[in-house]
Amino acid sequence: MAERSFDDDRLTGALTRETVKKNVAAIHISGKLTLLQRKLSNVLLLNAYDTLTTASSHTIDARTLAMMVGYNSNDVDSLRASLRALAETVAEWDMLDEQGHQEWGVSALLSFAKLKNGVCEYAYSPALAQKLHDPKIYALINVKIQRNFSSGHGLALYENCYRFVRTGSTGWWSLEIFRKLMGVDGSAYYESFKHLNAKIIKPAVAEVNKSSDIIIEPQTRKKGRAVSEIRFLIRENPQMAMFQIDDSDGLRNLPVYKALRGQGVSDRLARQWITEHGPDYVQEKLNYVAGQGDVKSSVGYLRAAIMGDYSPSEGGGARQAPVDPETQARLEEKRAEQAAAQAAEDAAFQARAAARRDRARHLDIVETLVSRRNPTQRDADKRLFQSRLESELDREHFRQHGWRSALNAASIIAFWQELEPDAFAEDEG
């Protein structure tokens, strides 16, 4: 039975090295989830996190969900199967509460999920939602990083190591616990450490070090002549930090984003509003709310202003004095200019989003093509591609990320279109 373990520390302030070491609880997610199912679980939690303990259910556009996870957006059957698997997956916790009393509980990972009119609606049980609503658990869910992984074992190892990045080590795990975390317990083959090391540990470590923002190093401890425990030393990956690509198109650098965060709006909601409505519109509503004086809930009022398109001339604010025709004409001209600029910005954003989707789809094709070639062919393909790269930066990024190198995406796609044009012709059709 596979388990994903999340630590739930007793926190009395900012996370510190000492408090992180005091692990008093764990949530175990049972069931041998596939890579895509594990990614789906993470994306759903990320989408729901802001209202995890306040909303009875959560929604996300099904096509967007499929794109973020890596499904073909038209493959509804696979999405249904994965949602069914999550609803059948058991989460179990055994922890101390704030008074030091032991608490054990069990819940389905999703209490329900449904697809209707292109929208996925789902929910967590209230008890599990309370346990998952932990900033340290949320920090594990990095959709941008998880896209780089091509194996479930690699992603599972990353998730179980990342939460210890502040302490620099996972601490010692028995091999029994480690096999459960990797989802290979119950297999006689992996009872042998030789097999476990060759097929699980080494490939997973290599993928974490290549694809994520941390570098890990396994260490083992023996009981007699047999390996009995394993731990992983952890440090940040400077190469990943250097090559990190902002999936949010620089939204976090916009003044309006910083203003929203200053008002207490969450990171995800701030980026969602800017993406959906444009920075000028959101800034206009920020200015409107600022002009209303003290309000009971600035975030709630701002949400209403954005969704209801509040303006000074509408209910809830002072109406503007009548303006003369000449001034009115100038205002209309200004609004037209703003509308045209917003339309151009929206079109540019949609074009960038379409380009990202095309790139991701083409890289998925590349991944499939690579998987069909034997090891000798794969090595030859890599050497041939690297010989065509002119920049050392490009070559280093390719060494780090292989055929998923975002920095070399255009060159990678062109290279494989030259080798296997029919595969891409079918996709374009």
From TrEMBL:
Name it: Replication initiation protein
Traced from the root, the source organism's taxonomic lineage reads: Bacteria, Pseudomonadati, Pseudomonadota, Alphaproteobacteria, Rhodobacterales
Give the residues annotated as coiled coil.
none
Q: Source organism's superkingdom?
A: Bacteria
Q: Which UniProt keywords apply?
A: Plasmid
InterPro entries referenced in this protein's UniProt entry, alphabetically: Initiator_Rep_WH1 (IPR000525), WH-like_DNA-bd_sf (IPR036388), WH_DNA-bd_sf (IPR036390)
The chain positions of domain Initiator Rep protein WH1 read 19-161
Family stated for the protein in its record: Belongs to the initiator RepB protein family.
